[in-house]
Design a protein that fits this description.
The structure is a homodimer of 300-residue chains.
Chain A: E1 11-14, E2 20-21, E3 24-25, H1 28-37, E4 42-44, H2 47-53, H3 55-64, E5 68-69, E6 72-76, H4 83-102, E7 108-111, H5 128-148, E8 153-155, H6 172-182, E9 198-203, H7 204-207, H8 213-224, E10 225-230, H9 254-263, E11 270-272, H10 285-298
Parallel strand pairs in A: 1-4, 1-11, 4-5, 6-7, 7-8, 8-9, 9-10, 10-11
Antiparallel strand pairs in A: 2-3
Helix pairs in contact in A: 1-3, 4-5, 6-8, 8-9
Chain lengths: 300, 300
Amino acid sequence: MRDFSADHRWLSINTATVRKSRGVEQPLTDIIEACAQRGIKAISPWRDQVAAAGLPAVSRLVKTHGLTLSGYCRGGMFPAVDAAGRQAAHDDNRRAVDEACELNAACLVLVVGGLPGALAGQAAHKDMALSRNQVSDGIAALLDYAIQNNMPLAIEPLHPMYAADRACINTMEQALDICDALDPPRTGKDGKTQQAALGVAVDVYHVWWDPKLQQQIERAGKSRLMAFHVCDWLTPTTDLLNDRGMMGDGVIDIPKIRGWMEGSGFGGYSEVEIFSSSNWCQRDSDEVLDCCIARHRSDV
Amino acid sequence: MRDFSADHRWLSINTATVRKSRGVEQPLTDIIEACAQRGIKAISPWRDQVAAAGLPAVSRLVKTHGLTLSGYCRGGMFPAVDAAGRQAAHDDNRRAVDEACELNAACLVLVVGGLPGALAGQAAHKDMALSRNQVSDGIAALLDYAIQNNMPLAIEPLHPMYAADRACINTMEQALDICDALDPPRTGKDGKTQQAALGVAVDVYHVWWDPKLQQQIERAGKSRLMAFHVCDWLTPTTDLLNDRGMMGDGVIDIPKIRGWMEGSGFGGYSEVEIFSSSNWCQRDSDEVLDCCIARHRSDV
């Protein structure tokens, strides 16, 4: 297992983590500069942040600093109440692939969506099987375009507490069943099997509890393990979305999970992704970045 | 599938649902009287409520009204930091079995516990595998006593958001793996295979999201399906513990899950179990009971 103590070359910052500084929204360009100043080698930006700063400007800045994108957040949200809604999602996801290509991202992360309308507070129906079928169909349709553009798609299984409103793919096993169904030969970026066209983003916050996690990480293998996101599960957790903890402040045995990842061939970035309305986003973003580096290197 | 519209003979009230009326704690004896007055045939009381009212008084009242206990809440909480702690849990769980026998409960529900200390806000360690092993060992030890006393044990898989602090058994598959390991012949109450000694309590709130739910209900079969708890998942959910919804107010397709249960031979009570600090416990408990009856009969 890699030793992170000497430097932070394998740290990536998901830009949602420092979206705000002292409660104030920050431009993505400032976030990128702050990362580059600290010798952070990789980021994973969100589409809305890129759009606000302008894709060409972000692309230039990423190249200027020689940054890698450990992923691009995010495509997905496939289910909809009608064909027009699903087509709109498909069109938007193709644009997400285009943007990910422009930024040379390692993968496009997919948060697949749940019951249509649930995120706004009123689900249009209760049929999870229907949503799950629409997700599979949506990924299948997008996969063709992604393969043409050499952009791997990484399904992110979300914690079951988000099943209704954010993602109806909730375990590694479920995500990998879809991968195996839609991308059986693990064809990929270079036409070989080294990198699959379809894989998973493993976020410890979403999957740490799963008794089959180790088994499913091994099943995924290097070719489907496309991203590794870290933060921590706090006890108590006071908000379902915005109470993620900094690594080391909660109960997740992150080194153990990283060990399973690396034992299966993963050698990519540890990407810090923290959503927090109550704590971290009220701090100065410089302090947050420094803390990310320190916790990354101490491997808590 | 049974038609619930004509009466509510298959409704059970978990007494946590009406623990408070207009925010004020109610004695269990009052709750039992209120249920009996409405022709409710079954309840599932919590140990602390029984203790406060006195076990003999509760036992008499249950018999007077001819009530059935669809379950008794609860045993479990097996993991601890040392042998003394595990022994204390074991001793307490034997008392729970005794109480369940006195009340002639259909089963003792097990909420198995998570990481020791996590419920109080400070986990003693992060080793979920250790806790899970302690749970298996604890159930194995209790099972001998439960079989001697003809009291079935029902493992309740809890939603993964409770993995750290309340229960490290989080899916039906995981619970049933333990059942099959510890009670392979499905021996039980009457020495036959009709009723296993060890099974599961299926609470829709905890398992509704699981893509393998139908498959695992079928795997469990009649002999291991010991209880069926209902309430609803709200969008948004504002509190991890105390924001359960009344049936019909959320996104869970309860009739579909009940259909799977009955298709596998379950013919027991639909037990309403709602924890809510923000809504239902501020209402008059008579109103809550009437609503439970109405929603049960409309089968939402």
